[in-house]
Fold this protein.
Amino acid sequence: MFFTFEQYKKLLGYVSLPPGLAFAVAGLGSGLTEAVVVNPFEVVKVTLQTNQNAFTEQPSSFVQAQQIIKTGGLGSQGLNKGLTATLGRHGVFNMVYFGFYFNVKNVLPVNKDPNLEFLRKFGIGLVSGTIASIINIPFDVAKSRIQGPQPVPGEIKYRTCFKTMATVYKEEGFLALYKGLLPKIMRLGPGGAVMLLVYEYVYAWLQDTVNYK
């Protein structure tokens, strides 16, 4: 995620975009790239997690992937089922996550005290992960419905991202699109802050090491 963000940020350096917008677009690009790579693994993971057989009777990840390809192929009914929802989930999250963090970080004054500076970055990262989670969770819900078991075996109810969102909204109400929001925030709020801090300090350390040499 951070590697692709840096690559897109470098590419956008050749385009005359405002710095604030460039961070968001680079985040969007990194999220879309990440989604394409991880979606097949997500399909296998969800299939294994929803398998109600005893653990010892479950197939391995590789065998499960082969079964998915055999029955559904590599497309939208097989190993890339729910790709649009995954693109939305990762793309929107990273766009808000990176865009908010770097824009706000550049606006708020830097603290000379290292401890306060650490807390400043952690706080911005925490808010970034929280806001990104709130905005992207409808895509997450749609992804879970599409990739998970359908309500009626053999009948596909949840097929495409936005149609799934519309169905959930119509049948279950607006708040149903935000199911699981609290645990998601509890995971990606602090987790997002930690990831950004590690990225910041490792990136700074690498720059210092290269410049020193």
